[in-house]
Write a structure and sequence with these properties.
alpha+beta; elongated; 5-stranded antiparallel sheet; 6-stranded mixed sheet; Immunoglobulin-like; Aminopeptidase
Length: 445
């Protein structure tokens, strides 16, 4: 039922409740062509109606292109219209009703419309999907005809390109009559917000939230760490940390920082502060163990409960003492609030923060143990607690991973293996993915 050329037309007949047709008409803003077509459509069922694609102005000084899409219905019904991006389309939801769409488009789009289809959207509901060439809004939708005459009943949609700059949005908002906004609000037919242009998946991922993970390769510089079987701890843990860093960055889901990236020594307190100052979502210290030749496998350490309890108590005391300045206390008194009560509340919140950090640490430690066991040997007792200096933090979930024992020849060979490092790093990356799949882990500290 379409003609591609400007002004060309092909007639078709409408018979009410018998043979239903629909029209797509590309119109330039302010031409009045759509009104002429609508008036002719409201004539008797035998009236011939023309549908055509009118040339659209392309100069910025001219009015923007619009497209009128008309659906013929067997009766008047309630409907809902929404425009959606990615892919760009207009959705029309109706109750079960007989309707007719024109033949599928071939070749170039008509106005903004590049295609359309209809079918059952849900039990008892019909859905018409109108594909469009760019982000759009439906400026106007109305049902024409059916007012006691025998003429066809038409659902008319005026589709226009969405304004993508602030000036266009402001001008469009000012141009809408207040009465029209009030009517739309009462009827529930307000358009959804203007859709944003579709973004490439890689660009959208780059702008999304990315937790910061701090990797802490142990020792360095004059501190070589454990040495045995041709394996030096400071070297193998740095190599492993770089492998894990590269895998995490390649996933596109995380930001990664390292306390050292070369053979330098970093004091223990500075390592912990490095993570706290950057508000890291995870702190992972990486080491290799030293024991008897029989001991082997990986071990994961988290902070000992008694030490964690002391940290919580300390955090409460520090918060109570440092929460409010003298001027803030004076302000509270001026409005009838008691400083000690407020201090107590803030101290309690600080204690809860420590408890939350401990819970998150335990959750991550279990995820590491479960996933590392798929790629390397685990110690007989892999889940351990200790009071290591780098774990003495109440602000960041922190674990220390002993990858293997340099004193065990088989473990030492694995630590020097690039393939082993890749496999184990992949397991830890999976543990990190699993950890952040929990909603609580993604909440800011």
């Amino acid at each position: 039922m379409f003609q591609a050329g400007a002004g060309s037309r092909e007639a078709f007949r409408l018979r009410a409740f018998m043979r239903l047709q629909a029209i797509v008409l590309a119109v330039a803003g302010g031409t009045g062509i759509g009104e002429a077509v609508a008036q002719s459509a409201l004539a008797a069922a035998q009236t011939e109606i023309a549908a055509a694609a009118v040339p659209v102005p392309t100069s910025p000084a001219q009015a923007p292109k619009k497209t009128r899409f008309v659906i013929a219905l067997e009766r008047r019904v309630d409907y809902q219209v929404q425009s959606l991006p990615n892919p760009n389309r207009v959705i029309v939801d109706l109750p079960t009703v007989k309707l007719q769409l024109p033949p599928s488009l071939t070749g170039q789009p008509v106005g903004i419309v590049s295609g359309f289809r209809a079918g059952l959207g849900a039990p008892g509901k019909m859905r018409v999907v109108i594909d469009v060439t760019e982000p759009v809004v439906v400026e106007k939708s109305e049902i024409l005809g059916g007012g006691g005459s025998n003429g066809p009943i038409l659902l008319s949609l005026e589709i226009a390109p969405a304004a993508t700059d602030m000036n266009s949005l402001v001008q469009a908002a000012v141009a809408i009559p207040a009465a029209a906004v009030q009517r739309a609000s009462i009827s529930g037919g307000i358009q959804p917000p203007v859709p944003r242009p579709a973004e490439r998946p890689d660009k959208r991922a780059a702008n999304s939230y990315k937790p910061l993970i701090v990797l802490d390769p142990g020792h360095g510089g004059h501190d070589s760490g454990a040495m045995r079987n041709g394996t030096v701890e400071k070297d193998v843990v740095l190599a492993f940390a770089k492998t894990l860093r590269d895998q995490l960055r390649a996933s596109g889901n995380y930001r990664v920082a390292m306390t050292r990236e070369d053979d330098t020594f970093v004091p223990l307190e500075e390592r912990r502060e490095f993570a706290e100052e950057r508000k890291a979502a995870l702190f992972i210290a990486i080491h290799a163990d030293y024991a008897t030749a029989r001991a082997r496998g990986a071990t994961i350490y988290s902070l000992r409960d008694s030490v964690a309890n002391n940290l919580a108590a300390s955090a409460r005391r520090e918060s109570a003492n440092d929460a409010l300045s003298e001027s803030e206390l004076s302000s509270l008194k001026s409005i009838g609030r008691q400083g000690p009560a407020v201090k107590s509340i803030l101290a309690d919140l600080a204690g809860r923060e420590v408890e939350s950090t401990r819970d998150r640490t335990g959750l991550f430690a279990r995820a590491v143990i479960e996933n590392m066991g798929r790629s390397t040997n685990m110690n007989e007792n892999p889940d351990r607690n200790a009071a290591f200096q780098v774990l003495l933090t109440a602000k960041v979930p922190a674990v220390l991973i002993e990858l293997a024992y340099v004193t065990n020849s088989a473990d030492a060979a694995q630590l020097r293996s690039e393939e082993w490092r890749r496999n184990v790093a992949r397991s830890i990356r999976s543990a990190i993915d699993n950890y952040f799949s929990h909603q609580g882990a993604r909440l800011p500290m």
